[in-house]
Amino acid sequence: MAMILFACKKEKQVQAVTKLPYFNSAAFTPEWEVPKHKIPPFSFTNQNGLQVTNDTYKGKIYIADFFFTSCPGICPKLTKNMGKIQEAYKNDPDIMLLSHTVMPWRDSVPLLKAYAEKNKVLDAKWHLVTGDKDALYSIARTGYFADEDFTKTQDASNFIHTENFVLVDKAGYIRGVYNGTIEIDVLRLQRHIKILKEEI
């Protein structure tokens, strides 16, 4: 006598993500329909003494972060991981990087240049910028929502120190935020870049 066994297996339905949300406030609540918050106009000076503005990144997907050259803590990890992103997209003209110093009173153009050379920054791909402190801190807090302490305290005198990588689309809207010190989050960022590139 032959016995036939039937096994029922419930398959998981995995829905592919085909679009990223917009982040329109410091709460980082994902919103799927209407983009409301665009990175405001900026003008800073890069490691080569050249002006960097929104136009530099017009039509580009870019990753922004905040650091300072003498930072002994999280900044070396952030820079190392930005370097990995640079390597992954070094031949992709659609992807750029932007690192803002939060210590502009110390991080002069020559210091940024030395830091760039030490970390093998590709000038056409990755801008390290300095400038007016108020402008840098303002764009960190109200442009990229990168300062969680300010969100909580509203104390403008606080020093900015954040591990966030912020993903900005070609139109200047925030589409993702990631912990730049954690490798798995950096990989998630790269997956999201792929989705962003394929968005219609």
Cα separation of the termini = 59 Å
So, the CATH homologous superfamily? Answer: Glutaredoxin
What amount of the residues lies in strands? 15-25%
CATH topology: Glutaredoxin
Helix content: 25-40%
Total of domains:
1
Q: Could you say which overall geometry the principal axes of the C-alpha atoms support?
A: globular
Low-confidence stretches: 1-14
The major beta sheet can be summarized as: 5 strands, mixed
Per CATH, which architecture?
Answer: 3-Layer(aba) Sandwich
Question: What is the gyration radius calculated from CA atoms?
Answer: 20 Å
Pfam family, one: SCO1-SenC
GO molecular function, one term: metal ion binding
Binding site for Cu cation: 71, 75, 161
InterPro entries: SCO1/SenC, Thioredoxin-like_sf, Thioredoxin_domain
Explain the overall architecture:
It is a single chain. This protein is of the alpha/beta class. It has one domain: Glutaredoxin. It is built from five helices and nine strands. It has a five-stranded mixed beta sheet. Strand 1 and strand 2 form a beta hairpin. The radius of gyration is 20 Å and the shape is globular. The relative contact order is 0.20. This is SCO family protein. Belongs to the SCO1/2 family. Keywords: Copper, Disulfide bond, Metal-binding. It comes from Algibacter mikhailovii.
